[in-house]
Each structure stands twice: as C-alpha cells, then as structure tokens.
Design goal:
Blueprint lengths: L3 E3 L1 H14 L4 H16 L8 H11 L10 E4 L4 E10 H19 L1 E10 L5 H9 L3 E5 L21 E5 L7 E5 L6 H10 L8 E2 L5 E2 L2 H6 L1 E2 L5 H16 L6 H8 L7 E9 L1 H4 L7 H14 L7 H13 L1 E3 L1 H12 L8
Parallel strand pairs: 3-4
Antiparallel strand pairs: 1-12, 2-3, 4-11, 5-6, 5-11, 6-7, 8-9, 8-10
Helix pairs in contact: 1-2, 1-13, 2-4
Length: 344
C-alpha cells in the first residue's frame, strides 16, 4: 500500500474521533487533535500522531480525566488561572486564551496559570496563537525527572520545554520551542523504536557513563543542553512553573504517576506581553524594530527558529499531509478500537 495524503482538516477530524471514541468530551478531543495534527502538518513527527498512543495509554490507566471541564478563575488582575482538573492542557488554554489576550493588551503583561494539567506535546502552538494576536509570549512547564543536572548523574530535572513567540508583520511569527534537555524524550523513544543509536552527548547510563543506546538512556538519565547553562535554565523552569505556582515539579510528577510511560501531570505557566503597551512612550514601532533585527539575522544566511517547520507547513497546506501506509493503518485501528491499539 502506498503513502496516504490527508488534508489538515481530515487528519484533525480523525484524531478527534479517536479521542471521542475513547470517551473524551468533544471540546477536549478537538483541542488535543488540533495540536497533534498541527505537529504532523509541520513535519514534527515526534509531536504528531506518535503522541496519540501515549494519550490513550494515560486515559486507559485512569491518569487523565476525559470528561472534566476546565474551570476559569479570573479576579480581573494580571494573573489568570484555569484549573484543568486533571485534564489535557490544550483544552485549558482554549478556555483562557481570549481573556489572557484582553488582559495583556490592557495591562501590558498578563500571566496564565494552568493547574493540574496533562501536557503531552509541543508548546509552540500556544505562543503562535498569541503572536498572531499581536503579543509576545513565553510558555513553560516541568515534566518528569529524567534529566541529570550538569555535573550530576541522577535524574532530577525534567526535559522542561520552553517556548517564545514574537509577532511579525509577515505570514509567520518568530517562534522557538525546545526542551532544555539535549533532545526531547520523544526523540530518544523514536530511536529506540527504530533500533538506531543516539548521537553522542545525549544521555548517560545509571552509573553516569555516556551512552548512545536508546534503552540504556531511557533507563539512565538524559543531559541538559549547553551543560551548566541548560541546567540553569531548566532549574528556572522548575521554579517558575512548578514551585512558584504551587504545582508539581518534575520529581513530584514522576512520584505521582510512578512511571515515565504515561503523561506527566503538573502545572504550566504562560506569560503574555503587549509590545504596543511596552513601547508606547518610546515613539517607536516595536514590531518594525524587531523586523530589523530578524531581517539582519536572516540576511547573514542564518536559519531562523521554526523556519523548517513553517516550510513543512506550507508544503502540507499545498500538497497535503503525507502518512505512510503503516501510520494510516494505525490511525484507522485507533479510531475503531482506541484502547486496543495501545502498544509499547
């Protein structure tokens, strides 16, 4: 059987039906499916339909609540809260997006605290949405304690993703989104499934020795990017989106679930800032100022963050999203029998 080509709407609809068939309420299923389909559309295989089985396994284990409705708490001040109630994080973000944008444009800065959520994929979709509405933003959350701090060997930090978005006048914003580990844990899992070695410097075994074996890495500890610099940034994320919120940090998230094979449960922090408010008294256009810098970077031949992802998106929107026959068959099987499709 040859490759299958789907539109984004087709793929999003199929993934949403998988979750609805697994008992997830419609609005949440749609929010989760949007993120998964967008990852596949943008060529991010480790954040695309690959994530579906992990979500289903967590549902099957009873570690995420499928019918919970996120609860918004807004005191009219700069900090807005959404209690996800043990549900998926995209649905909680959707509930608060409009008020977060409104408050940031009113005050210049606003923060969204998402409590007790399950994060399963990339953060760029949040900061992209905010950039499209004229805001700069930062998004971060802890994960599981799978990363050793620089100079250590025991897993203590999470992969702790961190995303930033900046609005631009053109089609795409300036966006970066990366784990503070050398690579996302999903990348190591994909190497394990493919039977391929890891690049050197990604991980250590249980004794702190370097390893390129994916399973040994998963059993040992991943490493932060940039040695002590990545370790410090990862620690900052633990403090800001864990300790400061009164939510789980990565070690607690691992203790709560008891395994890294299911999705982590923790909090998340999104900061939204209005360039127009911050620059108002300067008499300068912050977006135009930003364009000068970004154009100068690109003018030197440097690749901008997310450039390849945006190029993949443009191709997918033009030609469709290509799935292998095996990937499409897996989608069909999950749609018919979501929990029966769970595998290692």
């Amino acid at each position: 059987m040859s490759d299958i080509t789907l539109t984004y709407a087709d793929l999003q609809g199929r993934v949403a039906r998988i979750f609805e068939n697994a008992g997830v309420r419609s609005a949440t299923a749609g929010a989760v499916a949007h993120v998964i389909a967008a990852g596949e559309r943008d060529g991010c295989k480790s954040h695309g339909i690959y994530r579906t089985q992990g979500c289903l396994a967590t549902l099957s284990a009873g570690k995420v609540l499928p019918q919970v409705v996120p609860e918004l708490h807004d005191s009219g001040q700069a900090v807005i809260e959404v209690d996800a109630g043990g549900g998926f994080s995209p649905a909680a973000f959707d509930v608060a997006e409009d008020i977060l944008v409104e408050r940031a444009k009113e005050l210049g800065v606003a923060a969204l605290v998402i409590r007790d959520c399950l994060h399963f994929s990339a953060l760029w979709y949040e900061v992209e949405k905010l950039a499209e509405r004229g805001l700069a933003s930062l998004s971060m959350c802890p994960s599981y304690a799978t990363v050793a701090p620089s100079g250590g060997k025991e897993p203590l930090l999470g992969t702790n993703p961190f995303a930033f978005g900046w609005p631009r006048a053109g089609e795409f914003p300036y966006v970066f989104d990366f784990a503070t580990s050398v690579a996302a844990r999903g990348e190591i899992e994909l190497h394990r499934r493919a039977g391929t070695d890891l690049p050197a410097g990604w991980a250590v075994d249980r004794d702190g020795n370097p390893t390129t074996d994916p399973q040994t890495a998963l059993d040992g500890a991943m490493l932060p990017f940039g040695a002590h610099k990545g370790s410090a940034i990862s620690t900052m994320i633990e403090l800001l989106s864990g300790a400061m919120l009164g939510e789980f940090m990565s070690q607690e998230a691992l203790e709560f679930t008891g395994t890294t094979s299911l999705l982590p449960r923790h909090g998340a922090l999104i900061l939204a800032l209005s360039p127009a408010v911050f620059a108002k008294r300067s008499g300068r256009d912050p977006i135009a100022e930003g364009e000068r810098l970004i154009d100068a970077i690109a003018g030197q031949g440097a690749r901008l963050p997310s450039q390849r992802r945006f190029a993949a998106r443009a191709q997918s929107e033009r030609d469709g999203i290509v799935l292998t026959a095996a990937e499409f068959a897996s989608l069909e099987q999950m749609e018919k029998d979501p929990f029966g499709a769970i595998s290692d």
